[in-house]
Amino acid sequence: MASSAATSSVKVANPLARALPSAHATGGDLAIWEQVRAALRAESGERNFETWLAPLAFLGCDEGEVHVAAPSAFLADWVANHFAERLRHHWAQRRAGVRQVTVSVRSDPAHAAPSGTPVAAPRPLAAVPAPAMAVPGLSLPIESRYTFQSFVVGKSNELAYNAAQAVAEPGAPGFNPLFLHGTTGLGKTHLMHAIGNAYLARQPDARVVYMSAEKFMVEFLAALRAKEAISFKQKLRSVDLLMIDDVQFIAGKESTQEEFFHTMNEIISAGKRLVITADRSPQNLEGIEQRILSRMAWGLVADINPADYELRLNILHAKVEAMPQQVAVPDDVIEFLARKITANVRELEGALNRVVAYAALVNAPVTQEFARERLADLLRAHERKLTIDDIQRKVAEHYKLKMADLLSARRAREVARPRQVAMYLAKKLTPRSLPEIGRRFGGRDHTTVMHAVKRIEELRAVDRELDGDVMMLTRLLDG
Ligand SMILES: Nc1ncnc2c1ncn2[C@@H]1O[C@H](COP(=O)(O)OP(=O)(O)OP(=O)(O)O)[C@@H](O)[C@H]1O
């Protein structure tokens, strides 16, 4: 992510540079900083403010440049990309001449190496130990195929992905724990394994434990029975990185929750890393003690939303590329799957595998027809007959137009652009042909529809608002 999205008035200082600018904070500037904070709190909401903005430290302002510092490279990056323009705006309103905001990474004396500490020399290759593993016995195996590289990023999982990367990086991430939540099959477990793999690749000797909340409970109760609870506690609390999957499982299980709470506290206060996943947000987890919920919400809570059409396409492309056998899967089949299998990524992946495996078995080319036949059961379950009429209505409603306008010959931009969006969606989301779509839009020619589709494709690449409209409409219409 980083600096690419930062506006020209904002820069992210090199996250690795620990030294801070020599600006100084005067009393007047500190008062402005408090006002800016209040304005940001009001406009971004309490949650966003606490997560992203509250940890910022104000360093000072010199020659039109405001310097703030975040506790980690991850936070610095995120603030620069998502809040820096607002920061600049509020400063500029209150202090003449402010043109730029610089976000740097705060050097934290508590974590800095004491001066004089020798930096470890790189180890020669031959001395590198065999690939490290999670703590045997205690941890479930960490799957090597689930890596950051094999995780495809889109708007719906971007925050979770970036935060997960920050946990695996060497410096303190600036938040603890990381709480990932989302419904089934959206990549929570994948990200946890990716954290484990990346962390162990950097520090092969680290003690990493990945376990389901169910395993946590089973192991804890077994240790209690065997009168080995102390050793269980010690083993678990001495890890460097603890990852607990599906924490909703301990709902209603009181003694397990008690133990879980103390484990969380120990890990966090020892500065070790904790990652937790659940199928819903902390506020929505029922049957879990309030003190655990607030401890969880104290770190960074990142949701993973269902993948949109674009992300589904990208995931499918990535999965096809990663397949061991080189099977040609034409683009129209990929688009077909991305359009039809919308529930979650696990199902999408399963559908692709099913089609490809069967094609290889019977030595048939992968076509849309073939895919439709192989997935008939799955598709029937999802089938919702989406009509051009549905699309027109939704688009008209979204742009606050009358249906008659959408179908009219009016060329004014405020009508013509939504009409092109509707034609584009009709082509992408229904099996109707271009001439058929033209007919349904007031008897237009198929070349008009073709032009509309091309135009919207071009615009989506450069116009974020339009792209957002199309994605939202696609989700509303196509599930
Ligand atoms: N963004 C993504 N890129 C690549 N693969 C993904 C992505 N999201 C999910 N997957 C794949 O989808 C499958 C299901 O993901 P995963 O098991 O991580 O889901 P989950 O959210 O943990 O679900 P559950 O709550 O049911 O355990 C995995 O094979 C995973 O690799």
TrEMBL record:
Pfam families: Bac_DnaA, Bac_DnaA_C, DnaA_N. It is found in: Cytoplasm. Its main location: cytoplasm. PROSITE patterns: DNAA. Residues 387-456 form the Chromosomal replication initiator DnaA C-terminal domain. InterPro entries: AAA+_ATPase, Chromosome_initiator_DnaA, Chromosome_initiator_DnaA-like, Chromosome_initiator_DnaA_CS, DnaA_C, DnaA_dom, DnaA_N_dom, DnaA_N_sf. GO terms for biological process: DNA replication initiation; regulation of DNA replication. Residues 360-479 are annotated as: Domain IV, binds dsDNA. Residues 174-303 form the AAA+ ATPase domain. Coiled coil: none annotated. Domain I is involved in oligomerization and binding regulators, domain II is flexibile and of varying length in different bacteria, domain III forms the AAA+ region, while domain IV binds dsDNA. PANTHER family: CHROMOSOMAL REPLICATION INITIATOR PROTEIN DNAA. Oligomerizes as a right-handed, spiral filament on DNA at oriC. Belongs to the DnaA family. This is Chromosomal replication initiator protein DnaA. It comes from Polymorphobacter multimanifer. The lineage of its organism: Bacteria, Pseudomonadati, Pseudomonadota, Alphaproteobacteria, Sphingomonadales.
